UniProtKB/TrEMBL annotation:
<dbReference type="GO" id="GO:0000160">
    <property type="term" value="P:phosphorelay signal transduction system"/>
</dbReference>
<protein>
    <submittedName>
        <fullName>Two component transcriptional regulator, winged helix family protein</fullName>
    </submittedName>
</protein>
<dbReference type="GO" id="GO:0006355">
    <property type="term" value="P:regulation of DNA-templated transcription"/>
</dbReference>
<feature type="domain" description="OmpR/PhoB-type">
    <location>
        <begin position="8"/>
        <end position="106"/>
    </location>
</feature>
<dbReference type="InterPro" id="IPR016032">
    <property type="entry name" value="Sig_transdc_resp-reg_C-effctor"/>
</dbReference>
<dbReference type="Pfam" id="PF00486">
    <property type="entry name" value="Trans_reg_C"/>
</dbReference>
<feature type="DNA-binding region" description="OmpR/PhoB-type">
    <location>
        <begin position="8"/>
        <end position="106"/>
    </location>
</feature>
<dbReference type="GO" id="GO:0003677">
    <property type="term" value="F:DNA binding"/>
</dbReference>
<dbReference type="InterPro" id="IPR001867">
    <property type="entry name" value="OmpR/PhoB-type_DNA-bd"/>
</dbReference>
<dbReference type="InterPro" id="IPR036388">
    <property type="entry name" value="WH-like_DNA-bd_sf"/>
</dbReference>
<keyword id="KW-0238">DNA-binding</keyword>
<feature type="compositionally biased region" description="Polar residues">
    <location>
        <begin position="87"/>
        <end position="98"/>
    </location>
</feature>
<feature type="region of interest" description="Disordered">
    <location>
        <begin position="84"/>
        <end position="106"/>
    </location>
</feature>
């Protein structure tokens, strides 16, 4: 893959550099230690920065299942991502929209 093709598969959102070819997220040249599901969640949120993505959509597209009434798995993954962003010193944040979902704010 050429460097030009690789850059076409990369996204810069605020201080986050998301590489779809390497399936990694960097903040200040540091690779965030994300799990596969955490990577999928931040990738989906990064496609529409500042806009709310419904928890149902996150569950279906990232976890591959419908959201059930007492399912907190999306919330748990988002909490873990938030901690990793904070540890890396990122200015980007995942904000909660109560009763709706989450948004990535840079």
């Amino acid at each position: 893959m050429t460097q030009q093709q690789q850059q076409a598969n990369d996204n810069q959102i605020g201080d986050l550099h998301i590489s779809t070819t390497q399936r990694e997220v960097r903040c200040q040249q540091q690779v965030l230690p994300l799990t596969g599901l955490e990577y999928e969640i931040i990738l989906l949120l990064s496609k529409t920065p500042g806009q709310t993505v419904a928890k149902q959509q996150l569950s279906e597209q990232c976890l591959g299942r419908k959201l059930t009434p007492f399912d907190r798995s999306v919330d748990t993954h988002v909490s873990n991502i938030r901690k990793k962003l904070q540890q890396a010193g990122s200015r980007s944040q995942i904000q909660s929209q109560r009763g709706k979902g989450y948004s990535l704010v840079c």
